[in-house]
Design a protein that fits this description.
The chain has 262 residues and is of the alpha+beta class. The protein has helices spanning 7-30, 37-50, 117-134, 143-155, 249-258; strands spanning 54-55, 67-71, 74-76, 90-99, 102-111, 160-161, 167-169, 176-180, 197-200, 203-205, 211-213, 220-222, 228-230, 233-236, 243-244. It has 5 helices and 15 strands. Bound molecules: magnesium ion (MG) (2 copies).
């Protein structure tokens, strides 16, 4: 677990994560004030099954749905509900697939209608921190180089990094070792090897880093109830540069057309 994957395994992980990317793009078309989490969940489940895969999260450790839908102060693991999204909300959608023995796992945080500029800045900073983290996914670097790149970028803008929940290696299982924290020291942690496949997923809070869990046993929200953002890529460690298995291109084509780029 967590060791270098073969080219064939990486191809299967790419296939899964590209399907997650396309599922998120399909959801992007529907995200608007008035739509409910449960409606989005149905769309995603159907889309995934229509493309020959299974929802990766449904039933995983007992999770009840296809998507994790985390609105505003919910950091991750929100359960899709019948509550409609409202103008000004942000919504993180985390999606997983299972196909041909491998899995996909990626997330994007969307703006619903007109979102306050200060919250838009949080979304952009979090997405940029993902990009900066992933750029460190090169053989010979350390896990801590990814962690440090994410943490430095967001903290210098006054945001905070969730510590309790972290990224992870990915393969035949959704969560493999090693962990990929979003905070840490440069040059620390496991050395990255070409072909290791990991999910980098900064969870960044506008206020303090502290989190609490709801009584449902899943929903993680900020203790101070300020907004939190989350973006996730699956990536294979490359010799000279990262091989990103996910893409946000499909999502962002849709967002551009809707005029709601973050
Ligand atoms: Mg995820
Ligand atoms: Mg993940």
């Amino acid at each position: 677990m967590g060791l270098a994957k073969t080219a064939e395994e990486i191809a299967l992980l790419r296939e899964n994560n590209q399907l997650v990317s396309r599922t998120l793009a399909e959801l992007a078309k529907h995200i608007a004030p008035g739509v409910t989490g449960l409606q989005l969940d149905k769309i995603a489940e159907q889309f995934i099954r229509d493309h020959g895969a299974e929802p990766g999260f449904l039933g995983y450790r007992g999770f009840p749905n296809t998507l994790c839908i985390s609105v505003n102060d919910v950091v991750i693991h929100g359960i899709p509900s019948a509550t409609a999204l409202r103008d000004g909300d942000i919504v993180s959608i985390d999606c997983g697939t299972r196909m041909k023995g491998y899995v996909g796992d990626s997330a994007y945080t969307f703006a619903v209608g007109n979102v306050d500029e200060s919250v838009m800045r949080l979304l952009r900073a979090t997405k940029q921190s993902l990009q900066l983290g992933v750029e460190q996914a090169v053989a010979g670097k350390r896990i801590g180089d990814i962690s440090f790149a994410v943490q430095r970028h967001v903290e210098k803008q006054g945001y905070s990094v969730v510590r309790e929940m972290v990224g992870h290696a990915i393969g035949t299982k959704m969560h493999e070792k090693p962990d990929v924290p979003n905070y840490g020291q440069r040059g620390s942690g496991k050395t990255l090897v070409k072909g290791m496949t990991i999910c980098v997923e900064p969870m960044i809070n506008m206020g303090r880093r502290d989190i609490v869990q709801d009584r449902d046993g899943w929903t993680i929200r900020t203790k101070d109830r300020k907004p939190s953002a989350h973006f996730e890529y699956a990536v294979a460690v490359g010799r000279d540069k990262p091989d990103i298995l996910t893409t946000f291109e499909y999502i962002e084509e849709v967002l551009k057309q809707k005029g709601s780029m973050i």
